[in-house]
Amino acid sequence: MNRERLLNAAVLLALGLVPLAAHVMGEPFTITLATRAAILALAAVGLNLALGLGGLVSLGHATFFGIGGYAMGILASHVQDYEPMFEWPFLFEGSTSMPLIWLVAVVVSALVALLIGLLALRTSGVYFIMITLAFGQMFYFFSISWSRYGGEDGLSIYVRNGFPGLNTLDPIQFFGLAFAVLCLVLLGVRLLARSPFGLALGAARQSPDRVQAVGLDPVRLRLVGFVLSGAITGLAGALFADLNRFVSPTMFSWQTSGEIMVFVILGGVGRLFGPVVGAVVYVLLEHWLGALSEFWHIWLGLLLLAVVLFARGGIVGLVAGREKAHD
């Protein structure tokens, strides 16, 4: 087993065992921190699929994160308010079922990613970045003006949604659910990266002309990668909204897109566990340094600067050395 695999196993083991220890010691706040890290890592894994494997620098992934959050908020709020979501062609009163909410979040995020990708992939480089950023801001300002679902004040959900067989109000059970979803998505991304599609997508990132010369369409490959990436980030948004039992336009903001990008760069772009390491480090810095100073982002900026200048492979690359992407 090489160093990167050992590091990946250690990270996964630590992320799983720390909340269990906190549960035994009766520290639910630590479990909530670990849950937040797992969900943010899931969002970053989604971006890493587009960025690390497909070479698509998206500054609009908060769009999908917010869509996932509002999918949860809208469906649950109708049940909470006893007001049907629609009555034609059939009566639908909303839902507090996590599997159904996740399905809606994934499908709607994927459809929006398809529309954005069809337009944005007509360009490349800085124009692609600007188009994805513009879509994020459009959704942000739309959500601010959408007074039916809270407008700029956001939308509170008083009871966490349910998952069959689990008490999701129990912090350790909700963490276990988020952790299991993260592990399944990591496994799926690993298999995808090694599949013919993943190899073709990686080749399209490195040399689109050569990919086209062998009869493959690099734009179509990137579009499929972008849609999958958006769907994963949308799923993370639904979980994040359930963790906080609150959704707001902030989930669509460019700052949120930037934070998800920071997770990936900190941990290591293109590394399978890079987003997980980046999200965990971010949450720890936010908790520890945030308690010392409200200007803790200065230290985060210095760390990011050091990673960009001296550790191009991120923290995973610094510890494990140069390895193939998604090894």
Automatic annotation (TrEMBL):
Entry keywords, A to Z: Cell membrane, Membrane, Transmembrane, Transmembrane helix
| Single annotated GO MF | branched-chain amino acid transmembrane transporter activity
Its membrane topology: Multi-pass membrane protein
Q: Which CDD domains match?
A: TM_PBP1_LivM_like
Presence of keyword Kinase? no
Renumbered to this chain, the signal peptide range is none
Q: Where is this chain's protein located in or outside the cell?
A: Cell membrane
- CC terms in the record's Gene Ontology section: plasma membrane
- Residues passing through the membrane, by range: 36-57, 64-80, 100-119, 126-146, 172-193, 219-240, 260-285, 297-320
Q: Superkingdom, according to UniProt?
A: Bacteria
> PANTHER family, alphabetically?
ABC TRANSPORTER ATP-BINDING PROTEIN, HIGH-AFFINITY BRANCHED-CHAIN AMINO ACID TRANSPORT SYSTEM PERMEASE
Its recorded name reads: Branched-chain amino acid ABC transporter permease
Gene source species: Alloyangia sp. H15
Ranked from the top, the taxonomy reads:
Bacteria, Pseudomonadati, Pseudomonadota, Alphaproteobacteria, Rhodobacterales
